[in-house]
Write a structure and sequence with these properties.
This protein has 170 residues and is α/β, with parallel strands linked by helices. The protein has one domain. The protein is built from 3 helices and 6 strands; from the N terminus they run βββααβββα. β2 and β3 form a beta hairpin. α1 packs antiparallel against α3 and α2 packs across α3. The protein starts with 6 loop residues before the first strand and ends in a 21-residue tail after the last helix.
């Protein structure tokens, strides 16, 4: 990621029915905030890329014959243990400068996944550094918002499908 992004520390996720777009309000280190609108197409690509990056960088999944099962357990553990963040009081979401995201870049640095968003004119919107568990939680929240919006997106990875119980032997 050679682009320099404003650094976000916190994010809230929602859906705007009028825009028919998902949005991320990114709270920046400098006290400002930016609202990134994401299209259905970009969200589909983002979910897939994040899922692939998490799988390819998993220290456990690469050493097992069923990486999807390992990734599903990691995903469930991250989502179940989610602790809601605190939205900074210095900035109100309504005052966030709006951008239409057209590109998402994903990179890893050690055990951290960096998500960077760019706008229509390739202006950097913001980047968010996520630990593995946080990346899983963001994936889940994005997926939940897409479902609430009725976007009908395919599951980007087998391990993101909800677990089905009672499918064992006859």
């Amino acid at each position: 990621m050679s682009t320099t992004y404003p650094k976000a520390t916190t994010v809230t996720i929602g859906y705007d029915q009028i825009e028919d777009r998902m949005f991320l309000v990114l709270y920046l280190q400098d006290g400002g905030s930016r609202k990134a609108y994401i299209s259905r197409r970009l969200l589909g690509m983002l979910l897939k890329s994040m899922g692939e990056k998490l799988t390819s960088t998993s220290p456990t999944a690469s050493r097992t014959p069923d990486s999807a099962e390992v990734m599903q357990m990691e995903h469930i553990a991250a989502v179940v243990n989610r602790k809601p963040g605190v939205v900074p009081k210095t900035t109100q979401p309504e005052s966030a400068k709006p951008y239409y995201a057209t590109e998402a870049q994903i990179q890893t640095q050690g055990d951290t996944l960096i998500l960077g968003l760019k706008s229509v004119d390739t202006e950097p919107i913001a980047a968010l550094a996520l630990k593995r568990a946080e990346a899983h939680q963001i994936l889940r929240m994005l997926r939940d918002q897409a479902d609430k919006a009725g976007w009908g997106l395919e599951q980007p990875a087998e391990w993101m499908r909800p677990m089905e119980y009672g499918k064992g032997g006859d």
